Amino acid sequence: MTHINTYTPELIPQIKQFQTIIQENSSFLLVGHTKPDGDCLGSLLALGHWIEKIGGKEVHYTASRSHAPSMNWVWWSEKVQYFTDHESFKLPEVQVVILLDHCAPNQRSDIQIILSDYIKNKITVCIDHHINTPVPVNCSMVDASSSSACEWLWEILNYLDPEGIDKQIATRCFLGLTTDTGGSVGLEYEKDSVRSFENALGMLKAGADKKSIIQKLNEVTPSQLEYAKKMFGSIHFTKNCLWVVVEWKDIEELGLDTEQAGLAFGLMKKIVGKDVIAKFTHQDNKRYGSLRTATDIDVQQIAASFGGGGHVKAAGFRLEADYSLKDIEAIMLQIEQKVELQKKSS
């Protein structure tokens, strides 16, 4: 009995369809989302390695805009070819395109531009764990109950080819599972903690390099602490929420990247007595809202009301760049009301 049988038996037909696609084709392009994080990199590299191991398969890796510099330590990440100018970037000719850790148009941004014509005559596959309406593909494997794309991919590969799992696949999947559960497996996904812990155990038994991953993910620089100090000095409180407004230039001035700047937001989630933690970041002429919770509040539902999406405990949305502090205060009032409604109905 595999986790597929236990958690996602309804997706077995799609998984078998995916197996057939891999068997019957010889060239593949694996596509990650913009600025791939640990989960996206891990799933790209794990799946690519598995396909390459079969033999006689050509695999290419791409994403829009490079991963954060602080993720340069990720083994084999140099395999991924990034593009910033979609007009001059040329994708390789392949038979199959596989989207990993994203399936929705609003997550693909400039990837959507470069793929729109490219995929028309190709077989397309999506492997994702986000609660979004996927783009039309030939084979859609979306499990929103999974903590990460890497956990979901790990279950798929164990279902299809348990003998083909090796240390490299286990390590890459453990990276994504760990980063997408807040650095501690299962911590942010209490409802599925047994599933995540069992999968993590399976990865460790297969030889995943837990020591190196945990050591790298827990490194903290003085600049990160300086940024955390600045963020904590500008926290706003409401009855059920706390929130901050962040200017990306402040992050750049300290020499931090997206992953490193996330430390302060992660610390905010540990503040007791608040149901939702919100961060509004002004970057690239847009303002992004990020929501997190450590309680039973469904922040994905809240983000969806603003045109966004994500997970039950971690979600986000996009706003116009000219939103003022007063506008954000109005948004937080709406979020506060939505939190109250959820608490009353629970």
Low-confidence stretches: none
Apparent shape: globular
* Total DSSP E strands: 12
Strands in their spatial order, largest beta sheet: 3-2-1-4-5-6
Summarize the biggest pleated sheet: 6 strands, parallel
Strand content: 15-25%
The residue-averaged pLDDT reads 86
Alpha-beta classification:
alpha/beta
* Termini Cα gap: 34 Å
Count the DSSP helices: 14
Calculate Rg over CA atoms.
20 Å
Task: State the main characteristics.
346 residues, 6-stranded parallel beta sheet, 6-stranded mixed beta sheet, 14 helices
What does this structure look like?
The chain is of the alpha/beta class. Helix content is 43%, strand content 18%. Strand 1 (27-31), helix 3 and strand 2 (58-64) form a beta-alpha-beta unit. Helix 3 (38-54) packs parallel to helix 6, helix 7 (167-179) packs antiparallel against helix 8 (193-205) and helix 7 packs parallel to helix 9.
Offer a quick outline of the entry.
With 346 residues, this protein is an alpha/beta fold. The chain has 14 helices and 12 strands.
List the helices and strands and how they pair.
Blueprint: H1 3-7, H2 12-24, E1 27-31, H3 38-54, E2 58-64, E3 81-83, E4 96-100, H4 105-108, H5 110-118, E5 123-128, E6 139-142, H6 149-160, H7 167-179, H8 193-205, H9 210-217, H10 222-232, E7 236-237, E8 241-247, H11 248-253, H12 258-268, E9 276-283, E10 286-292, H13 299-304, E11 309-310, E12 314-320, H14 325-345
Parallel strand pairs: 1-2, 1-4, 2-3, 4-5, 5-6, 8-9
Antiparallel strand pairs: 7-8, 9-10, 10-12, 11-12
Helix pairs in contact: 3-6, 3-7, 6-7, 7-8, 7-9, 10-12
